[in-house]
Amino acid sequence: MAGMLAWTTSAQAELRPLWELGAGVGVTSIPAYRGARGEVNYILPLPYFVYRGRFLRSDRQGLRGVFYQGERVQINLSAYAGPPVQSGQIPARAGMPNLSPSFEIGPSLQYVLIESPDLELDLRLPVRAAFTLSFKPIGWISTPHLNLTLPDFRGSGWIVGASIGPNFADRRYHAYFYDVATAYARPGRPAYSATSGYSGSSVYLSASRRFGPYWVGAFLRYDNLAGASFVSSPLVETQQYLAAGMGVSWIFATSSRLVESEEP
């Protein structure tokens, strides 16, 4: 789900199940799109799936393929998803076409800056192609950021993460969300054509913990669009906002096969 934070830990490799499977429920409150006023609330099924393969992995960094892993450098797959936008629910978009759910996928370079049993700090440089669910391409986006992980926060058993960084995208990506075609212009909503460039900055905070067969997690995201290349679009109603979510899953099945892993 959009906004969920990904991180790695620097724990010593241990034998863990090759896969774990669970299910639960999540609640999230996010804007319809970055810059929209008001929040959209979702109650969603929350699958829990961990796979600790050599190439294909599903863990706290999401479902990914690890193309290269060195002592400090890793190249893997980065992915992200965005919700649909019902224009009838957004005053600024009244009368405009709805926006389909979107997903983004592409390579990410990760470089470890600090690594210890208590703290890991790394730089992540993802570049993703964006599509609607019908596989219509809608541009490119990059979200370089510093990512901090505290794998056992003050001995509590909680894994706490934080990240901060700017966002950038091409014109086609910005146009999908912020263009106003002449046919949809009206008083108070002039025609607008977005440009490429800076897309604002984001800060993520996240925490999760296992309680026996149960997993609990939560996230908080702050976005600031001041100085973004599309900030003058009439579809941008606010330059800053918060998004939040939490969920719980019951892990009901695990693999009998064990593999070495640094992931919990």
From TrEMBL:
InterPro entries linked: MipA
Domain of life according to the entry: Bacteria
Name of the featured protein: MipA/OmpV family protein
Organism: Acidihalobacter prosperus
